[in-house]
Amino acid sequence: MFPAIPYPQLRLFFDGMLSMMALYALFSYTQHRKPIYWQYALYILCMIVTFYWDDIDYGKADYLPGTNFKVAAVESLAFLLYIRFAILLIDIPRLDPLSHKILRAMNIILAIEIAVDLGFYLADATNVVKSNTYIFFRCLLALGALVVVPRILKLREVAVGYFIAGSLFFVLGCLFALTTNFFPQIFDRNPVRALSFPVTYMEIGVVLEVLCFTLGMSVQNRKNELDKIQVQEQLIEQLLENERKQSALIRIRDDISRDLHDELGADLSSISVMSYAAIKQLNGSGAAAEPTINLIGETSRKVITRMREIIWSLHSVHNSVDNFTFRAKETAYTLFEHHPIALHFDFPSQEVNSRIPNESRRNLFLVYKEILHNIVRHSQAQNVFISIVVEVGNLALTIQDDGIGFVHEEKENLGNGLVNLQQRTNSFGGKFLINSLPGEGTTVIIDCPLAGHIQE
Asked: What are the structural domains, with CATH classification, of the chain?
């Protein structure tokens, strides 16, 4: 009636298939480091061991399900891993919190069952009590499954179909194995006929289940990869949009710079020229008005200077380190022009193509200028040493004088001027260091992050 396939050979073939799938899962874990893979491999190994022991139990004349503690414990462990596998594969906690709670309750039931079976094993309870307890707990699990499975089907996730199909194959295999107990004359466990053994059908169900689960994981991984690609594309699009906005902002800054130069600059320059011409035209007859006119001219010249600084700080063409060093030297000479202080510069000897971010350049320049003003007002120095060192990703600006110095205390005791300098430096992610002692001068070091560093 049955094909003459020897049972030992078929079992060896199926066990080999399952073992290969377990090894594949372990290898996948080493590659992806996801718990689902090692749990899946352990589940397969538990089922192989369970089938081996089931073979022995089915051969007993007084066999009752659940009486062998080892079989029941390993089987319960397999179900624990099975539930955990379902949770990870379908992402049940996120998609259906209620089903997740039910599955967690089923895990607790399995843990209780293992503890109860251990107690019966140690107390040497009767096989009837062990079997009835086993059936009771399995019925509780079946009720939980009847609630969860319909809910999972409604999720319409990619992996759900494969999971349900695999579970169906496993259940059908188990049901068919149980049915064989009612036809002992047909399923007589003849070693020559593999299909006469109940375990054959259980193992066929598990083999088909494992194949479905493996396909489900592959499809789910593919979906995850596509989701990652989509997220990456969105991030790239967002970065491009940010670049477009940044470019638009730079254009606006450049437009403002040009407008200030073209419109206000010309008018302020004409005011300065006209005030000078008015003094000449008075020919000494308007001595009382001369100071006022001089003040107008001086004020307009100051405004022109300030406006040029604003234009320089706004325009993106001036964001190179070389341009900054030129501006720093020009500003220092202008400030110290009428003071007996010698300037000493140590700037990069060759061209540096690194860029100072636009949002940092203005604050860095204002900090630098304020330090020079403080030297003029308070230091009584004879020499000022200014150096710029460009390293990978960083510009270090050092300003040192040989003046009278001061007592440098903690930040909370600093004057508002130094605190403001520190805050302005912090605004562009830089570092502000100051070292001073009475009679030994003052050294200030400012570190400014750069947009890039390419030295030729």
From this structure: 7-238 (1.20.1070), 319-456 (3.30.565.10)
